Amino acid sequence: MPKLLTGAEIVFKCLEDQKVEHIFGYPGGAVLPIYDELKNHPSIKHILVRHEQGAGHAAEGYARSSGKPGVVLVTSGPGATNVVTALTDAYMDSVPLVCISGQVPTHLIGTDAFQECDTTGITRPCTKHNWLVKDINDLSKVMHEAFRVATTGRPGPVLIDIPKDIQFAKAKYKKPNKEKKLNGKSHNKFSQDQIDELVKLLSKAKKPIIYSGGGVINSGPKASQALREFVELTGFPITSTLQGLGAYPGDDNQFLGMLGMHGTYEANNAMHDCDLLINIGARFDDRITGKIDEFSPNSTKVHIDIDPSSINKIIKVDLAIVGDVTNVISKINKTIAKRKNGHSKSNKSNLAKWWEQIEKWREKDSLNFVNSDESIKPQHAVQRLYELTKNKDTYVTTEVGQHQMWAAQHYKFNKPNRWMTSGGLGTMGYGLPAAVGVQIAHPEKLVVDIAGEASVLMTMQEMSTAVQYNLPIKIFILNNQYMGMVRQWQELLHEKNYSESYSEALPDFMKMAEAYGCKGIKADNPAELDDKIQEMIDHDGPVIFDCHVDPNENCFPMIPSGKPHNQMILGPNDQEENKIKGKGKALV
Amino acid sequence: MPKSKSAYSIPTKKQKSDTYIFVVWVDNEAGVLARVVGLFSGRGYNIESLAVAEVDAVKNISRITIVTTGTPQVIDQIRLQLTKLVPVHKVAEFKREDKDVIFKEMALFKVVGKRNKIEKCLNACKKFNPVILDETKSSAVIQITALRREIDVMNKKLKPLGLISTSRTGAVAMTRGAKIFN
Q1: Is A124 in contact with B38 (Cβ distance < 8 A)?
Q2: A121 with B76: Cβ contact below 8 A
Q3: How far apart are CA A557 and CA A91, in angstroms?
Q4: CB contact under 8 A, B3 and A494
Q5: Which of A293, A376, A281, A366 is nearest to A324 (CA)?
Q6: I want to staple A451 with a disulfide (CB 3.0 to 4.6 A). Which of A149, A456, A492, B129 is the partner?
Q7: What is the pLDDT of residues A530-568, one digit of tens each?
Q8: Burial per residue of A555-573, b for 16 or more beta-carbon CB atoms within 10 angstroms, e otherwise
C-alpha cells in the first residue's frame, strides 16, 4: 500500500515533479504547515520577499526571463489580497504563474475567521483559473492541473487556495498524467490552406509590415528564430509592441523600432500606409492602435495568435491563423522555401519603393532629443547605459512611466526574454521585484531595473530581499522628482496644472542604499555619467543608482489623441506647429 | 461629443445589437456559475435571463442558458471568452429569430379573486398550456409556458384580474428535429 502523505508533503511532491526550483513567498498562519515541510526538500529554494506583491512580480520576472512558470506561496487574507496586483499584471501580460495561498481551515470558511478572505472569489477575474481544495484527495490532481493551465495555450496566472486542515490531512500522492495527446483542445487550429493564402498575400504585397508582439516571446526562443528567418525570407519591415521587444534584433536595419503611442515615426507611418499588415502574437492594444476607425485604413490584415478570443476583438482581420507562433511561422517559412525552389521569384524587388518611403520617414529621426552639457537628459542616460552594457547579455526590467518608454525606445534588445516590463496593467513598482526574480533565474547575468523614482518607491522594500540573497541587481533610477508621465499629460492636456505629480519629500537614495546595506551611486552631471555607470556595472552586489535627470523632459514622439498613426508629434522642434487641441485631448 | 480629458479613446460609432441565446455545458462544480456570470459582468456584457441546472448526473454536467444582447462582434467575443473557461465543455449560440430552435420560459401566476376572475385568467392563458397547481375558493396558482414577450403580455393582462405575484424562469432552449447543438 502506498504511503499516505500530508497535504503539505503533497504540495512539495508536486513542485518537485513539476521541476520547480524556486518559490517566492512570505509565511503566515494559514501556510505554516507548508513552510514547515520546506526543510525536507533541498531541491526547492524559497526566496523570502518583503511584501507579497513583490513575490508576485519576482515570480513574473523569473518566468519571463526563463520561460518557466513562476511559483508564489502566500498566506490567507492579506497575503492573498497583496498578491492580487501581481496576478492581474501577469494575466494582462500572459505570464505563467502558479500561486499557492493558505486558507483558514475548511470548518471556518465563511465565518469571517481571522485572516479569512474569499481568495478564489477575489482572484477569479484575474487568473486563468483557480481552485479551492476542500478534499485532500483532489490536491495532487489540482496541483498538476494548475501547472498545465498556467503554461499551455496563452499562458497566465492560476491560484490554488489550500485550507490549513487540508495541509495536515493525509492522502495518496498521484503523479502527473502523461501528456494526453491533444485531447480535443489543441492550440493549433490552422490549416495549410490558410498558410497558402498568407503566402499568396506575401507575394502580392507592395507595402507590407510585420507587427510582432509578446506572443513571439511566449512561444519560446524557437519562435524568435523562426521570426528572424521569416523577416529575412520576405525582406519585409518589422515593428514590435512593447512586449515583443527582443524577438527581433533591435539594431537590425529591417527593424523600424517600437510602434504605438510612443513608437517611432517610421513604424507608425508604415502601419498607417501599409497594404498588408501581419500581426504575429500581438493583440491590437489601445496603446498601439490609436483611433480605431482610422487604424491602418488600406491594408489587408492578418492575425496570428494562439488565443482565438484575441481575433477580431478590436480590429477586424481578413485572415486569422490560430496557433502557436513557432508552429505557424515555421510552416510559413517552409511553404515559402518550397515555392522558391519552384519558379516564382521573390517579391523583394516590389518592395524597393516602400523601403524608400520608410527611409524618408526614418530621416525624421523621431527619437532625437536636445542633449545638454549641464543636465543629464534621461534619454541620454538610457543610451549610455545601453552602450556600456550591450556586450554583456543584459537583462532589463522597468517600472512604469516615462523612463519605461525611454528604455523601450533607446535600449536595443537582440534576444528574447531579456526585457521585462509591465505593459497591460502598467504596474508602477513592477521593476525592482521583477529584477529580483530575473537575477534568481540568471545568477551570473547583469540585471538592471531602469526605474523612475516614484515607481521604485512603491516596492522599495524588496531591496532588502536583494541584499539578503546577495542578488547584484542594479536599480538605475532616472530621478526627475516628478511622476513624469503624469506630469507630461498634465502639461499637454491640463494646462500645466501639475496636480499632485511632484514628489515634495523624496528620500535620499544614497542613504537609503546605505540603510539597506547595498551600494549607492549618484550622478547629476553628464560628464561623470559614463564613469558612474561603469562603477555600477563593476560593483559585485546590489546598487541603487540615483541618476538626477532634467525634470522637464517629455517623452516623444507621441501619437496625440484622437489622431491616427500618421499624425504624430515629434520632439521639441516639431511641437510648435502641432499643438494638441479640442477632441484630441480625450485620446492621449 | 463631450470633451473628455482621459487617457483613452472616445467610443466610436456603435453597431446594431441583436438578441442571442447562449447554451453552455459546464462541469457542475463550485463557483462555475460565478465564473460564467462574472465573465459577463466583468466585460460589460448584458444578461437578460439565465437558467441553469444539472442535466447529466453521471458526467456531472450542468447546462446554462443565457439570453443576451450584443453586436455581432460582442457575441463572437462572448462565445470565445466562454470557451476559454476551464470548466466549460462546449458553447452554442443562436439568434432569437432562429427558426430551428425552440425556446421557452415558464411562469407561475398567483391570482386572488372571485371564481369568475380566475376563470377569466385561465381563459386568457389558454394558448400557453395553463395548468392549475393550487386552487382555493379565492385563489389559484397558474403555470404557463411561453415566450418571454408572451409572458410579459400576460403579466400585464392578468393584473386587473387579480394577479398579485409572478414568478418566472429564464429561457431554456432546444433544437428542432433530430439534430442537437454542435
Answers
A1: yes
A2: no
A3: 29
A4: no
A5: A281
A6: A456
A7: 999 999 999 999 999 999 999 999 999 998 877 888 888
A8: bbbbbbbbbbbbbbbbbee
